[in-house]
Amino acid sequence: MIELGVNIDHVATIRQARRTYEPDPVWAAVEAHLGGADGITVHLREDRRHIQDHDVRRLRELTHIKLNLEMAATPEMVKVACEIKPEMAMLVPEGRQEITTEGGLDILAREGALKDSISRLADHGIMSSVFIDADLRQVEAAARIGARVCEIHTGPYAEAFHTKGRDTRSPAVVAEIDKIRAAGKAIVDLGMRFNAGHALNYFNVQPIAALAGVRELHIGHAIVSRAVFVGLREAVAEMKRLMREADAQRRVDER
């Protein structure tokens, strides 16, 4: 059954705006868990703009669901992951000037270095994930370097959905869903786990949650935004309901 990983980076963004101690990302992780989250995701950026090293250590010690650490594929970050030992480490591209992650990791351009990073993570018992665009060449490269999970970048789909009238039957939206579907099938066929995420929200999530083979969706900004009005526990529960409804309907349709 499809699972939800909740990204709590922006809880730390609020805290860092005042350089204070609240809101606490660990408290957010507990609330997300109580709302039905299956995992917690945080991105420890090289510039430490939101999540801090001590946050990751406390999350590792105090949360009771799996921890997914997003990080750049640098020696520093691999070292941090090997020390903290999250259940999963997801390698992502990272730019100092970007507001959020702007695209998938180009594995083809860095196969050797990325393979070494994944090997180090595996030596420490950490499942490796790569955040990539819905590109079959990148999926094949992910398999070559030993990644166990591919998270498909859903940003282009979300942008098409937003700009094309929020219509899932729009040709532009259908084209993006088809790309994700094809990439997901290739991921599963190559023996890896198919996850997806980025820019998913309460209005566009169901077509992605309904795709065959998808194991987890990682969602943050939309959930934290909704939590401002309804609380984090309810915001997570609402997202989980939408995902499970779509997944259940697909299973019925396939019978």
Topology readout:
Elements: E1 3-7, H1 9-18, H2 25-35, E2 39-43, H3 53-62, E3 66-71, H4 75-84, E4 88-91, H5 111-123, E5 127-132, H6 136-145, E6 149-153, H7 155-163, H8 171-189, E7 193-197, H9 205-209, E8 214-219, H10 221-230, H11 232-254
Parallel strand pairs: 1-2, 1-8, 2-3, 3-4, 4-5, 5-6, 6-7, 7-8
Give an overview in words.
With about 260 residues, the protein is an alpha/beta fold. It has a single domain (about 5-255), classed as TIM Barrel (Alpha-Beta Barrel). It has eleven helices and eight strands. It has helices at about 10-20, 25-35, 55-60, 75-85, 110-125, 135-145, 155-165, 170-190, 205-210, 220-230, 230-255, and strands spanning about 5, 40-45, 65-70, 90, 125-130, 150-155, 195, 215-220. The protein has an eight-stranded parallel β-barrel with strand order 1-2-3-4-5-6-7-8, surrounded by eight helices. Strand 3, helix 4 and strand 4 form a beta-alpha-beta unit. Helix 6 packs parallel to helix 8 (about 170-190). The longest helix is centred in the last third of the chain and has 23 residues, at about 230-255. The two termini are about 15 Å apart.
Write a compact overview of the structure shown.
The chain has 255 residues and is an alpha/beta fold. It is built from 11 helices and 8 strands. It has one domain: TIM Barrel.
